[in-house]
Amino acid sequence: MTQHTDQTVTPEPEQQSLFNEQAMAATASDPAARVEELRRLIEHHTYLYYAKDAPEISDFAYDSLMRELRELEHQHPELVDPSSPTQRVGGYVGDQFAAVRHEQRMYSLDNAMDLNELDEWLGRLEEFFGRMVPVVCELKIDGSSIALTYEDGRLVRAATRGDGTTGEDVTVNMRTVKDVPLRLREQGRDGVVRPGAFEVRGEVYMPKKSFDFLNRAAEANGGKVFANPRNAAAGSLRQKDAAVTAKRDLSTFLYAIADQNAIAAETQWDMLQWLSESGFHTNPDIRRCTTAAEVHEFCQQALENRGNLPYEIDGVVVKVDSFAQQAAMGFTARAPRWAIAFKFPPEEKTTLLRDITVQVGRTGALTPVAELVPVVVAGSTVARATLHNLDEVHRKDVRVGDTVIVRKAGDVIPEVLGPIAELRPADAEPWQMPAECPSCGSPVIREEGEAKHHCISIECPAQAQERLVHWASRGALDIDGMGDEIVGRLLETGRVTDVADYYTLDAVELSMLDMGRVNKDGEPIRLGQKTAQKLVDAIQASKERPLARVLFGIGMRHVGKTMAEALAAAFPSVDQLRAATEEQLAQVDGVGPKIARSVWVFLHTPANVEVLERLAARGVRMADDVVAVDAGPQPLDGLAFVLTGSLVESGMTRDEAGAALKALGAKVTGSVSKKTSYVVAGEAAGSKYDKALKLGVPVLDESQLMTLLETGQLPEL
Ligand code: AMP
């Protein structure tokens, strides 16, 4: 749920009165009580939203409760508690995971590979009890097993299954999973008082959409691509930095309790009910069956409906309903005898690999793509599948002309598993990455230690939109008004192909730019005179930006704002930068050999040189004025600052505040470490603030910052 962010929201009047007046009254008299109250309220509404899909308050109201709690915890650090809902998105970097011994073993499941094997198992049940006993059918969620321990209603530990006897302690990470209750009400909706300590078990999974999104982003940035949602869930859970887990959109379905005696339920069915009543997320797709035919029907429906579910399933788990009957059957060394996993048939087909083409992403990453003779897999036609990168093509050893095995589970990304060796044509050659970008013909490069090849030409059309928008963005050349839509139109009309073309636009021509839409009379909508003039003024103004903005705006790989500033400080003109050797570049603060190589190659790629020359010819400043006189010692010399949150009272942007600090001699960096001297926390400060607290870095609020900027004096803390 993206709406529940911790961004500052401007409250609407009546909602403000509903929440904030109460808040202020309680805050003034007893902050601890208000914090308690807020935590309860937020937990209740989180439960309604995530576990029940039935919110009772607006996202706005939820956000304001969260904001108030965050503020109170900020003002009263002694009230901060790891169980607080504000701690879900943590910036912790945990040590590697500690081992957890499971008090009750976490078993695997025996499999039935088809309906015959399922019937054999049902037959064994009937034999054992002398009759068919009730069973519960559940979906088999394709995620990772998880065990959650609660003590006095608080989540105290989360552990993976591991080898069944010993798992890994992933508590910090699981706290970030939004549908996991951190604290339970003392009694469930059913009125039953919860036991002091108990352990619930289930599956943590990644929804298909999030999985696709994650992989697509990884693909574009050359990051790790997960084979399936199950791996993605397990991988995301086992992150060293819980903040990464928090961003991964994991969810849970809980379906078991370690010690069945801990609760009043006597059947699987009632236990699922109890879990749901207690605030855990349970899967609604369950059925209690008393005949084999009903079980078959459930399996069949699950198989047919599989593609429509927002998460991945790989079968159906059938469990004896009664706990007493479960106990009578017991366990084998590996799995319970009272349950079976009916596995869906594999969704694999063979087809011909016609070709391997190369796709150029918006960031210049090159991805080989398998072009297949179309084949129907799992109900949909597959004609293309990503092969990720060159190493992957070689590891799988797929060649053009091969007959390959293609897999597709549900509606998740299709995958080429590998070739059928016997069917390979005699002349099939191992595939190679082309030496030139298929989009623009520039040389393709692969940096050391990276899986992806890249095209780094500024003129590559596949990357044009991204590059043009980035150049105009606020931190770069800051051409106000030059956003995605106008850039898109300029590209489409062919009027602009690279950033140097911006500086040839005039107001008359721009005012006629066809926006690709029509008004109610069917006439094309044009940009218009006023907007065009504003844009041209902004373009003109951008010519005078400092060199660091140009170096950031031009879009060299690995060169962010801070790096661009360091480069501009060391080499105050593009000419000097181009004249530098890789070794000289590597000496610059924070650069190092890898980035030095990347910068050097960029600045010596002919297409890029040509654009830089055209920019200079059109009046864009390519050098900073070097201040010859030493300004002498500055009050903040040697101190490193990090800014987080937004500065509300002064109305300054973070960039402006950063520039003001630098003018006093400070260094301003992007992330908090032990070396950070001060963190300035504005409104809605996020994980950097948390990290400052963790590392004991002093935090300044906005008014302290203003005093510092005015007087040059550090406040006493
Ligand atoms: P496998 O990993 O193939 O041996 O299958 C066993 C695993 O299936 C268990 O460890 C659980 O993590 C998982 N599983 C998924 N859904 C369920 C469910 N509804 N009931 C029991 N186990 C499940």
Describe this structure as you would to a colleague:
By secondary structure, the protein is of the alpha+beta class. Strands 12, 13, 14, 15, 16, 17 and 18 form a 7-stranded antiparallel beta sheet that branches. A 5-stranded mixed beta sheet has the order 2-11-10-3-9. Helices cover 36% and strands 18% of the residues. It contains 25 helices and 24 strands. The chain is globular and about 90 Å long. Strand 13 and strand 14 form a beta hairpin. Bound molecules: adenosine monophosphate. The site of adenosine monophosphate has 11 residues, from strand 3.
TL;DR of this structure?
This protein has 717 residues and is an alpha+beta fold. It starts with 12 loop residues before the first helix and ends in a 6-residue tail after the last helix. The site of adenosine monophosphate has 11 residues, from strand 3.
Secondary structure blueprint with pairings:
Blueprint: H1 13-29, H2 31-51, H3 59-75, E1 99-101, E2 111-112, H4 115-129, E3 135-141, E4 144-151, E5 154-160, E6 166-168, H5 171-174, E7 197-205, H6 208-221, H7 229-237, H8 242-247, E8 251-257, H9 268-277, E9 287-289, H10 292-305, E10 313-320, H11 323-329, E11 339-343, E12 348-360, E13 365-377, E14 380-386, H12 390-396, E15 403-407, E16 415-419, E17 444-445, E18 453-455, H13 464-472, H14 484-492, H15 507-511, E19 514-518, E20 524-526, H16 529-542, H17 547-553, H18 561-570, H19 574-579, H20 582-586, H21 592-603, H22 606-617, E21 640-644, H23 654-663, E22 667-669, E23 678-681, H24 687-695, E24 699-700, H25 702-711
Parallel strand pairs: 2-11, 21-22, 21-23, 23-24
Antiparallel strand pairs: 1-6, 3-9, 3-10, 4-5, 4-7, 7-8, 10-11, 12-13, 12-15, 13-14, 13-18, 15-16, 17-18, 19-20
The structure holds adenosine monophosphate (AMP).
Adenosine monophosphate is lined by residues 108-109, 138, 140-141, 145, 161, 203, 255, 317, 341.
